[in-house]
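Risk mitigation, structural track. In case the binding assays with heme C fail to produce interpretable data, a predicted complex structure has been prepared as a fallback.
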Amino acid sequence: MPRRFCACVLCAVAAAVATLLMFAGPPSASAQPAKPVSFITDVAPILKENCLACHDSKKKSGKYDMTTFERILAGGSNGEPIVPGKPKDSDFHDLMVTDAQRRMPPRDKGEAVPKDKAAVIARWIAEGAKLDPGLDPKADLVKELRVRWQPPAPPKAYPFPAVVNALAFTPDGKQLVAGGHHELTVWEADTGKLVKRVRTRAERAYGLVFLPDGKLAVAGGRPGQEGDVRVYDLSASGKTEDGVTVLDGVNDKKVLVAHLFDVDDSVLCLAVSPDGKTLAAGGCDRAVRVFDLSGGVAKAKLVQTVENHADWVLGCALTDDGKYLVTAGRDKTAKVWDLKARESVVTFPEHQNIVYGVAVKADGSAGFSVGADKNIRTWKPGGEGKQVKSAGGHADEVFKVVSHPKQPMLATSSADKTVRLWNAADLTPGKSLAGLTDFVFAVAFSPDGDLVAGGAYDGSVSVWKVSDGSVVKSWNASPGFVAKEPEPKKK
Ligand code: HEC
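Fallback model:
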């Protein structure tokens, strides 16, 4: 198995960090700012990067919680670690630069804080260890940093391929929406022509679902930094650049029509009941948030936060009646949660490896799951969650499983670079759809069920006819990206 893909999202995280480094330029906390050091702009990012993993409100190593300015000054079991004006007498700084065995971060636990960053901390203490005017000393730093963060504009022409983590056909089935880098891109499904680009705050989109009113709900995030669910109106008007409509989903309220929530790490999966009344989204914080959308997205109400997995929630699905939530976990289980009774009803453990994706029969009579064990399994979502059948066919890990909108058919996507169709009734394998050139992270059926699309790690996208498996069109969903010609083979 290619080790390049360790645990789906983990790898995506590494790739995202790499792309972030390519694009973010120098970090906002410049080494030696000419102005007085700002706590929130210069100091807080250094603490977040180097200290908060152990000194957050959960771990509080040394009984020291560094999540707010007030708590940073108060210190831990040894009392106040900062003497304003005197960096040399401040443990807070001394522990970063000391040659002694006791250092922060502890020597066996991580690299020393880079010298230029430690110097920023020293200057901040020398200047009086002040808080920025207007900032509440009790404000949560991570949240403050998130609120202040401004997303970069997506690259006009991609110098690297955009990882396609999510795909969705538009309700008329004519266009395909793909997650790009800080944007969504919209393509003609039969020609692969780029028609629209929608700038987003999220670096990546992991889940795309059209609501019955035609608005697009998007789950996404910036790995390790933030995650969110936002709703966009792709029919809003915008500028035209080189024949492509460009919408601003960051600032234009006609484009970004709702913002359901945000959290400290990526939101990885999204499901909406067919009546559009129930929306569920889960991710790295192990929780699935369930919203009641009966009053419209603008009045979305958080009705439940389901914490049923011991690790990241990688996939989710809802039954048509919105009663059952089925989830896939990095904790190697698929689970069923009864949303009315608010209790866990089934844990399906048979994959014995990461479960990446789930689907459920509309009436709730069968659950389907796929994972790192390369298998697709079907099981009873009621009773004891008994396995009905397990089927192989993919040559590598399977990431997603989606239900056909009309027939008893499923489509799966895999690290073996294929999309595969299955008979949902008995899991007999149907056509294997080839043509993609990397791990296939995204798969979607068109609303009429005539087409199926797959999207891959290297930005490649293919659209096939469900009836005969023929390719309608393949292209790279990274605007302006020019793939390098393969090196000519030497004799
Ligand atoms: C990998 C975990 C880890 C990281 C990262 C870490 N610390 Fe610590 N820290 C600890 C532990 C464990 C203790 C308690 C043991 C000790 O005091 O040596 C501690 C204690 C401290 C104390 C003493 C608290 C008291 O009152 O006893 C200070 C001050 C401190 N850390 C500052 C920092 C700073 C500043 C950073 C970031 C540059 C940092 N730490 C990063 C684990 C960590």
